[in-house]
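Question: I have long wanted to understand how a fold can be written as tokens. Here is the record:
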Amino acid sequence: FTAAAFLLLLLICASFVGLGSRLARATALARWRTVSNFGRLLGTDTRYQHLELGEREGNYVLVQNGLSTVQFPEPQASQSRAALLLTQHPEPRDVLVIGGGPGGLCQQLLQSPLGSLDYVEPDPRLIRLVYDHLPADLRRPLLDARFAAYNCDGRYFVQRSARDPTALSGAVMRLTDNPGAGAGVRRAGSY
């Protein structure tokens, strides 16, 4: 190598230094446009997944690993889901929600006279991301003493919980594309 060739190579390498982050942003936006017509607010990688959040006119969409999973606030949809779940037991007391709850379902369930509501979500950054963008009227119920959130796998929670899973009035789990996601959660005697 001559000194001139080395300097030329160094200049070429230096010109590509900022290109990586710009390329990553451009591909993230292109990927986002295939998933949602909401404006993309942010994207982040967690230990469990890639999360993206979009917003349009005060409504939010959460995209997990390229799949649109939750839109919030959606009061009518959350209210309908909660009402349907509560009708599955004559006197619901203790309910377990595994995934998909902090965007409105848990808040609607807490409007009933439940004794407790346990919410299980392995990804703490997902909970924080949703919570930070909830309107105040949807944040307040999550401070209710009957509500407890746990950052762990749903199967682990059911197997290790001090509470007998057959004593639950109900359990609901957000279904995923993973066929093994619910394995080991359902127990005899629970809904």
